Amino acid sequence: MTAAVSTTSMLQFESSMDVDKLTYEIFSILENKFLFGYEDDPKFSVTKEHQGNPNAHVADFFDVVAGAGVGGILAGLLFTRGKDGEPMFGAEQALKFIVENCRKFSQKSPGGVFQRVFRPSKAEKVLKKVFGELTLKDTLKPVLIPCYDLSTGAPFLFSRADALEMDGCDFKIEGVCGATITNKAVDLKSIDGRTKILAVGGGVAMNNPTAAAITHVLNNKQEFPLCKGVEDLLVVSLANGESDAGVGSIMSTPAAFVRIAGDGAADMVDQAVSMAFGESRRNNYIRIQGNGIVSEKQIKNNKENRNMLMIAEEMLAQKNVESVLFSGKKLVEKTNLEKLEMIGGELIKEEERRKKSIVPTVVLKVQGGSPSPRSSSATTLSTLSSMSVLG
């Protein structure tokens, strides 16, 4: 199984973190309910205990994670190996970290060009405290986190697979996370000092890294030898909501234009991926998107500032939207919640298949050791991204 995470860049990080919390609330729901079952619903009665691991994490069910912007930090938190060999953070702990430290990552800009300006010194201190000297080699699964390299004028994709191949592609996790959220140029060097980049946020380079994650899996025959095409993938995308930047205002800020451009690029990736899956998109490619249901403006107008979990559940209750080639976007019969429930069931079934299969279709690279086989009858790809900041 593979997982990809995409989210808004720091340029879009100019609004209340409450909006971004929606994605993490949804991810927490996915971890605590869909993967391990509902206590009050026998239909989803498969629990952590039933899986034989009461401390199971989302990372245990996926093979690849890709994340841009804040999603890159989330990917690092959820898929970096802790001292006990398990993921450093669960979904709830990752959410708490993001919310508690968002003000240290950015501050108000008096000039107003970007309402929030990246604070590299404070962000570096926070990320350094969490990740220490850990590098891409210390991640549990294949990790893909993009930034934009100003020195080459092209996107740069940090990759665990590449890091395990050569030190020139290995970077400290704290530097990788800082690079993918920054809206200021940040110098970054590889562990051996041979690779140098001048990085700005991953959301500028690759706001929706789903295609990059799929490309990585399909072309990485060493780790995914039996994955022949998209029919062997299950893609779940918790995607950016549609931006309402500039609505009701004649003048829009540069940051708003960046958001709009990012939304457009993410939608293009969505259309391309949907086209690639063809008729199998209904079961193999799932995209969960806010579609403008909840914006920062709506939250601000609500004096009681409703519980984010309630808002997330409202979004999940909406009809799912899928992209159809030459037909635009269409509402489907199932809700976002029902789609996630289906995925939760498929993830558990896949894990059971892997336990019984004697043929390893996923052979993950391991630092300083032999590849780690993970038997399965299919490879699953999940894409997670936070809601874009609306308003």
Automatic annotation (TrEMBL):
UniProt keyword list: Hydrolase, Lipid degradation, Lipid metabolism
GO molecular function: hydrolase activity
Matches recorded under Pfam families: Patatin
Gene3D superfamilies, alphabetized: Cytosolic phospholipase A2 catalytic domain
Low complexity: compositionally biased ranges: 370-391
Region (Disordered): 367-391
Function: Lipolytic acyl hydrolase (LAH).
Written domain comment of the UniProt record: The nitrogen atoms of the two glycine residues in the GGXR motif define the oxyanion hole, and stabilize the oxyanion that forms during the nucleophilic attack by the catalytic serine during substrate cleavage.
Identification of the protein by name: Patatin
